Amino acid sequence: MTIIQQNNKKILRFYGLEAARFNKGGCIYLDSAATTLMMVNAKEAADRFLEYYSNVHTNAHNKAKISGICLEWAYQKVTEFLKCSETHEALFMGSGATAAINGFAQLMRFNFPSRRMVVISSMEHHSNDLPHRQNFSEAVFVPLSSKGKSAGGIDLDFLNNILEENQGRVAYVAVTGLSNVTGVRTPLQQICEIAHRHDTVVLVDGAQMVSRTRVDLTALGVDAFAFSGHKLYAPGSPGVLAIKKNLLEQLSPIYVGGGIVDDVTTSNYILSSKLRERHQPGTPNIYGAILLAYAMHSLIEYGMDYIEEHEQNLCDYARKLLTQIPEVTCYGCIDNSAGTNSGCITFNILDLPHELVGRILNDHYGIAVRNGCFCAHPYVRSLLQEELWELDADPENPDDINRIDSFKGMVRASFGVYTSKQDIDALAKAISIIVQNKTNFLNNYISSSIPLTSSVSEFNPLKLLSTGNSQYEI
């Protein structure tokens, strides 16, 4: 039995699975980079909490006291999971990493107005790119360390030079921990050392990293770390910003309201003496925080080292199988050694638009993948540039332009703790069949406007939510 099989069986036993305990819904779910499926035992734990649910910010009655204790436990579980209990505070912000990153950008702009430059890697999701451009007058992009179909990584020499030349002007450096496009890992410790040497801080988009690898913010030296609970097996939970206490102490809040003050008069207000509370106005998403914290508790109990090994092995195995299939191009493999990518694999099939491949995998093989540019247009464009240049097209011909547009993207298969080696085998087998029958598939899918399945248009949300029966097969 392989390590993948052993780990997967251990995971299934730990969660009491039947993979249905993750609500896989009958399909082979390879879209975990977009959102992970619900960890059902975490939902059950959060549902048990609802018996005691109340708003916090008072000790006048028992429900409020219990809710406050549980919410405090959730905050502590986040920093325990990220191994930064002594160094960082956790803030719950909005519905995902996007809100947390926007909040950080606004905090830094508001509190450090003389620092008008941000430095951003060229692999970023739009959520770790556009907020910085919107809030700062100058954004510098760090080039990739490799080019073409293997593009990925960060040019550390460029990073060092740009920070040295602009020391005192840079508000922060924004990088991903793990690319949502290719799974390329970022050398966070080296980046933090370079940034700190030049008097600036580092914000990490950890949305892909947090569910796939063991994270130790203290050891890495990361100043701020944003992630989404919905990508950590807890859909409906909040976004999180874990930020160094000594940095947060320097920041006046940008969002104000109830719960952040000790006193208010018509002429003044006094912020809370508690550091975290100054930046958490209003009623928090208490249920979502409990849901996320229990998911983290379960992952800690199981062991993130095992999960990291499981996901790494799946990624290496998928890359090995797909690169052996003729007419399939895989992206972002910086070198041929194992361990350089994790969590996902992106690919295209020669002469087949990426959207069509995704639809065929869904319609004919029950495999859920994602296609497009994954909200990372600059990075995807750099990966595809050579291929798009090679397309034989007349720039004056609208049909040729539309044909090129259909190839501006790729297909991504991404993994979770519930993904098995058998899921990867099914994907590779399906892709092999598609390659062998390209002409038939192209003839069967006449236009991009055809529905995924004939029954999708009849799907009734209210019937599903009211009765649990949608009369719809995934």
Automatic annotation (TrEMBL):
<dbReference type="InterPro" id="IPR015422">
    <property type="entry name" value="PyrdxlP-dep_Trfase_small"/>
</dbReference>
<dbReference type="Pfam" id="PF00266">
    <property type="entry name" value="Aminotran_5"/>
</dbReference>
<protein>
    <submittedName>
        <fullName>Cysteine desulfurase</fullName>
    </submittedName>
</protein>
<dbReference type="InterPro" id="IPR000192">
    <property type="entry name" value="Aminotrans_V_dom"/>
</dbReference>
<dbReference type="InterPro" id="IPR015424">
    <property type="entry name" value="PyrdxlP-dep_Trfase"/>
</dbReference>
<feature type="domain" description="Aminotransferase class V">
    <location>
        <begin position="28"/>
        <end position="427"/>
    </location>
</feature>
<keyword id="KW-0663">Pyridoxal phosphate</keyword>
<dbReference type="InterPro" id="IPR015421">
    <property type="entry name" value="PyrdxlP-dep_Trfase_major"/>
</dbReference>
